Amino acid sequence: MIRILCLLFLAAVLIMPAAVAHPRDKARLLYKEGLALKRSGKLTAALKYFHAAIRQDDGFAPAYLELGQVYALLENYRQSIYYYRKLINEDNLLSAGPEDLQVIYHLGHVYYYEGNYKAAAALWSRLLDLQPQNGFAMFMLGKSYIAAGEQAKGEKLCDESLRLEVGSKK
């Protein structure tokens, strides 16, 4: 009898932590599996894991970022924008931290590829406000203006971005 009770106690001690695992831990495991699938090019399968991670923990920001990236890779820009926008709102654009800068960067690309050049220009401009020496953001802002029909303004920014990049290499 004591032997059985010991075995039951041991089983409870070993099994109980897994049974009451925190949703964030489960979300993290699903997220890691999604990353592995993404790296191997299985984007549709990766989406399922990132969505599952969010179902486990709806505040798990890395999964939202990956959903934005994967949907952009699949050229589903509406969905990409949706998930990026879950991470950032207009208030965040005023005092952006490092994670927000990454979202602004990716969202600027998605708007550009989608053909929404004015929205792209607004984001590249904001990124440039936050990082004035960011030659890439300046170049993309120029490209966005050119695509939106503001040729002279765009060319000036593209030229300036090249000078900025050449100057930083010296």
From TrEMBL:
Q: Would you indicate the residue range of the signal peptide? A: 1-21
Show the InterPro entries listed in the entry.
Answer: TPR-like_helical_dom_sf, TPR_rpt
Keywords, alphabetical: Signal, TPR repeat
Q: Which Gene3D superfamilies match?
A: Tetratricopeptide repeat domain (1.25.40.10)
Task: Tell me yes or no: is Signal among this UniProt entry's keywords.
Answer: yes
Ranges of the TPR repeats in the UniProt entry = 61-94, 101-134
SMART domains according to UniProt = TPR (SM00028)
Q: Which Pfam families match?
A: TPR_16
The protein depicted here goes by the name Tetratricopeptide repeat protein
Species per Swiss-Prot/TrEMBL record: Chitinophaga japonensis
